[in-house]
Write a structure and sequence with these properties.
Blueprint lengths: L1 H25 L4 H18 L17 H14 L5 H16 L3 H33 L11 H11 L5 H4 L9 H12 L18 H4 L1 H11 L3 E2 L12 E5 L9 E9 L7 E6 L4 E5 H6 L6 E5 L3
Antiparallel strand pairs: 1-6, 2-3, 2-6, 3-4, 4-5
Length: 304
């Protein structure tokens, strides 16, 4: 009997213990339930956290001086001003893009376009110079091309300080303008011939050397073409301008050498001249034609 009672007591204790343990695992505040709830909260929280508001990294700045590169490209428009207009417009547009570039990527792309456009300008101007040289080849007796830099250096050196000891000064006798332009052509590499010449002393020069209209006739004989004030896109530094002042009504009056050509977006270029008589290095074309004089015209001869 005692044995039976003991067995019953043991069984009751076992059942009680297991029931207690199971009740602990099912309690809402249990550690296991808390861990599961925390995991669920973190998952929901992670899913609803807004994206980061940090700014994206800034693009790299240009790796070269874009303003200096743009300025250098603008000199191409001056040195090769006799290129056809659309090529110059394309280069100018590329230069403006280069000036506006603020990132390395944009600057590199713009510089590549500038380089390509500049080569197109140079190629067109070079082809045009070859074309006018070919057209005049049957009649031209002067060197083709020549040293334009030497021509301009001489003119700038003597525009105010006359080289009268070597070539004379015709200002007291109607003007030294054509004599001065002829000196520049000698510096460029031209040679004296039977029509166009000077022996240096006063009154030893031919008319085409010292007078505007005879110089025009000489250029015509050489087969040179020319532009007028209405079409300036093929003019370049070193060309010769022969002017007829409207108020004189006496034919051709004045000779000047092109000293600078400035590209103007959306309009004709600005052309400047260097000369004697009205001594100056940069006499602007339209001002000379319509302000200093009235209803005037010009032939700007293209020298091959």
């Amino acid at each position: 009997m005692a044995t039976l009672v003991s067995a019953v007591i043991v069984a009751s204790l076992v059942v009680g213990v297991f029931g207690f343990v199971r009740s602990l695992s099912e309690r809402p505040g249990s550690e296991a339930s808390g861990a599961a709830s925390a995991l669920q909260v973190r998952t929901v929280s992670d899913a609803t956290t807004p994206a980061s508001t940090a700014e994206p990294p800034k693009a790299d700045a240009p790796t070269f001086d874009t303003a200096a590169a743009a300025d250098a490209a603008m000199t191409v428009l001056g040195d090769y001003s006799d290129a056809v207009r659309p090529t110059k417009d394309a280069l100018y547009t590329a230069i403006q893009s280069l000036r506006a570039a603020t990132t390395a990527e944009a600057a590199d792309a713009a510089q590549a376009q500038v380089t390509q456009s500049a080569e197109a300008v140079k190629a067109d101007a070079t082809a045009y110079r070859a074309e006018i040289a070919a057209k005049a080849s049957a009649s031209n007796t002067q060197p083709v091309g020549g040293d334009v830099a030497a021509q301009m250096a001489y003119l700038h050196q003597h525009v105010f300080s006359y080289n009268s000891a070597e070539w004379g000064d015709y200002n007291p006798y109607g003007g030294d303008c054509t004599n001065f332009a002829s000196q520049g052509l000698i510096a460029r590499g031209w040679h004296i011939d039977k029509t166009w010449y000077s022996k240096g002393k006063m009154w030893t020069a031919s008319k085409p050397w010292i007078a505007t209209a005879p110089m025009a006739a000489y250029f015509d004989k050489l087969g040179f073409g020319y532009s007028t004030e209405a079409d300036l896109d093929r003019v370049r530094v070193g060309d010769i301008g022969l002017f007829s002042w409207g108020e004189t009504q006496a034919g051709m009056d004045h000779t000047m050498t092109v000293s600078k050509v400035e590209y103007v977006p959306g309009g004709p270029p600005k052309v400047y001249f260097i000369s004697h008589n009205y001594d100056g290095e940069y006499r602007e074309l339209t001002n000379a034609l319509y302000v200093e004089h009235q209803n005037s015209t010009v032939r700007i001869y293209h020298l091959p």
